[in-house]
Amino acid sequence: MGIQVLAFGKLNLSLDVIRRQASGYHDMKMVMETVELCDDISIEVSEGTGIELTTNLPFLPMDGQNLAVRAAEVFFRELNLPPKRVTIRIFKRIPVSAGLAGGSSNAAAVLRGLNELLGMGLSREELMPMALLLGSDVPYCVVGGTVLAEGRGEILTSLDPLPGCHIVICKPNFSISTPSLFQRIDCGKIRHRPDTAGICEALRAGALDQVAVRLYNVFEDVLDGRAKEIMAIKRALIDAGALGAAMSGTGPSVFGLFDDEALAREAHLRLSKSYRETFLTRNRRETLI
Q1: Any idea what DSSP says for residue 283?
Q2: Which helix (H) or strand (E) holds 155?
């Protein structure tokens, strides 16, 4: 028996780092949004044992280092299910190491898919402990939609949905180390913080432009020498008509929100000439479970 599941990417409309916990993790405050840019995942469960993963990107790990494999392992272990053979196939569209939660989204999709395929009937609240074992973004990726995420990312509060809009996402031709950014940030010296309350109020009012002008990510202030290129992409998006632009997660992807499809298409075309991983998409307003 098998099932097809979509794993959607995420954006950080805002990202704030509040404090460092004694555990070494950081308390975060983030407004998250799901986009239609997605990976295709098929899951088959049959008699036997073992988890097999294949993808269209041969450089990705195919064993327990891959969050999709670990998600299947956690699902069976935490529910004390008898061993089965699980075959997972992933067609990747979300760029890797991009700040778009591609791996976390794959893990969340495997949890949702196995939950449905095996008829477990678990609620989102029941899936959350398993999701958090896999990573800080995975709980959000289980749910999707427009959400305020706090704590490590596991405290989720649904917000009024972001109005429908066109989104251009551009990933520069390099990656950024997430641990290095967290090491570099000093919560007591953050000069600028996102107006999270203002974003929430703008969402209540359904005012896309007021959300867009408040997009902000504190990690943009602690980037290394690659900050210049990220800022240049932000300026290019704004100059092309984006209502606002920001880096997502720990980067390096930059996105812009547009209320005009023609402007978004033109921005996508321009940036695509310099950056291979440039995408035109929309936000996905529905929750996933």
Answers
A1: B
A2: strand 155-158
Please enumerate in sequence order all residues whose Cβ is within 8 A of that of 225, keeping only pairs 6 or more positions apart, or say none.
none
Give CA angle at 32 (31, 36), nearest 5°: 150
pLDDT tens digit sequence for 242-263: 999 999 999 999 999 999 999 9
Tens of pLDDT, residue by residue over 81-109, are 999 999 999 999 999 999 999 999 999 99
pLDDT digits (tens, 9 = 90+) for 150-194: 999 999 999 999 999 999 999 999 999 898 899 899 888 898 999
C-alpha distance from residue 248 to each of 98, 161, 218 (Å):
8, 18, 10
Beta carbons of 244 and 214 less than 8 angstroms apart: yes
Q: Which of 29, 92, 137, 171 is catalytic?
A: 137
Q: Assign 43 to helix, strand or coil.
A: strand
Active site (annotated) includes residue 259: no
Please state, as a whole number, how many other Cβ atoms lie within 10 Å of the Cβ of residue 252: 24
What is the predicted pLDDT for the residue at 189? 87
Phi-psi category of residue 153: left, alpha or beta, with phi > 0 → left and psi -120 to 50 → alpha: left
Catalytic residue among 10, 29, 92, 171: 10
Catalytic residue flag (residue 29)? no
